[in-house]
Amino acid sequence: MRCFVRCGTRSPKAAWARTNLINWQRQRGPTFSPVRDERAEDDQKCSRHDCVRPECPSRFARIMALTIYPRVPMIGVGRQEVELEDGRPLPSYRRPPVSEVALSVEFSPLSEWSIVHFGIFWAAMRNRFPKYEFYAPLRSQIEEFGDARFNKPEFVQLMTGIPELRSWFLNDQGEIVQVQRDRFVFNWRKNTDESEYPRYREYMRPRFEEEWARFSTFIGSHGLGEISVRQCEITYINEIIPGDLWQTNGDMQNIFTTCRRSQGAFLPQPESAVSSFTFVMPGERGRLHTAVQHVLRSRDNQQIIQFRLTARGKPEGSRPNDIFEWMDLGREWVVRGFTDLTTEAAHRAWERTQ
Fold first, then answer.
1. Lateral strand order in the sheet of 175-180
2. Cα angle vertex 240, ends 235, 245, to 5°?
3. CB count in 10 Å sphere of residue 147
4. How far apart are CA 351 and CA 354, in angstroms?
5. pLDDT of residue 130
6. CA distance linking residue 242 with residue 247, whole number of Å
7. pLDDT in the model for residue 30
8. What pLDDT was estimated at residue 153?
9. pLDDT on residue 270
10. Contact 184, 168 (CB under 8 A)
11. How far apart are alpha carbons 3 and 325 in whole angstroms?
12. How many Å apart are CA 330 and CA 231, to the nearest integer?
């Protein structure tokens, strides 16, 4: 379990836990005193998120509060990840095969949104995203649980009036903002083989926060209604090119832990390969969807193995902090899922650091 706290602050829950700890110590008397009297004044001022002193009550209170209330949102600048239970750090790679990342928010359709608002919104962001394209809208994909998860029959709906649109706003840095009546997406996309993934913590999340704030402000200032979030989604697309890890589809066992072939197998090497898995997050907070496919890359027609991981689920509410907290959870599931489903040989090739 991983939790997030704001550096240099103490939540009311942590303060409550610390007060209970000190009262308990007073009842026990001097025979048990992890909080020494001579350091009490300094301890009260301690707000270091990384304090490791066993006698520090601030540290104990934070651990106690995070254990009792495990979901503390990560807010603002200077945030740090706090490890609990097994203390495993989030895996990291110096050379990950990431080619695209998308952070998406689906909300109830904005009834007042019309085609003219695409142009008005672009005028407000044209200096950052000078290009635009139009596509068909993304269809809604809400994670359901219980009997509701079974697919419902689809009906053909005749089109009337102006068709729905999805607009892409692009720049030369590989950034894309996608907007439609019920969706906002922020993408980073690899433009060349030399482009490097700019990292979630340092780049993707802050940029998503900025563009989401601008979009939310635009919706409010133009009277287009309130944003009622239905679901959040984070997708990582990885492109694994032929090389030391694989040359043919029979070599996929060198990359994926789910592709092991037994000795003396009857079947020959597969001509092509497609596989997918779905994993439910605890508390039905969402699902992780993974898909492996042998494809031709569109920009150069090179054969690649595409490994797509999508975490999708509903946040606690529609506030920005609810959205960002769920994105952090989804990203963790993507990264840990990526690590669990790939081999140690692949980790060495991608230079895993932790």
1. 131-135, 166-170, 175-180, 183-189, 98-107, 229-240, 303-313, 287-296, 274-280
2. 140
3. 6
4. 9
5. 97
6. 5
7. 42
8. 56
9. 77
10. no
11. 10
12. 12
Considering the entire predicted model, what is its pTM?
A: 0.73
Higher pLDDT, 44 or 269: 269
Q: What is the pLDDT of residues 322-342, one digit of tens each?
A: 999 999 999 999 999 999 999
Angle ∠(294,277,291) on CA atoms, nearest 5: 25
Specify whether the CB–CB gap between 104 and 235 falls below 8 A.
Answer: yes
CA quadruple 90, 231, 234, 286: dihedral positive or negative?
positive
What tokens were used for 170? 């692009």
Range from 200-209, 215-224, 293-302 carrying the lowest mean pLDDT: 293-302
Are 314 and 214 within 8 A, CB to CB?
no
What is the C-alpha separation between 343 and 354, in angstroms, rounded? 14
Reading phi first (left if > 0) and then psi (alpha if -120 to 50, else beta), residue 87 is in: left
- DSSP per-residue string spanning 63-92: HHHHHHS------STT-EEEE-TT-PPPP-
340 within 8 A of 257, measured Cβ to Cβ: yes
Q: Which two tokens stand for residue 319?
A: 């506030």
Start-to-end CA distance of the chain, whole Å, equals 17
What SS3 class is residue 339?
Answer: helix
Closest CA to 190 of 306, 91, 290: 306
User: Rounded to 5 degrees, what are φ and ψ at 320?
Assistant: -55, -45
3-state secondary structure at position 250 = helix
pLDDT of residue 81: 44
Number of Cα atoms under 13 Å in the Cβ half of residue 342 = 30
Range 21-49 average pLDDT: 42
113 C-beta neighbours (distance < 10 Å), count: 19
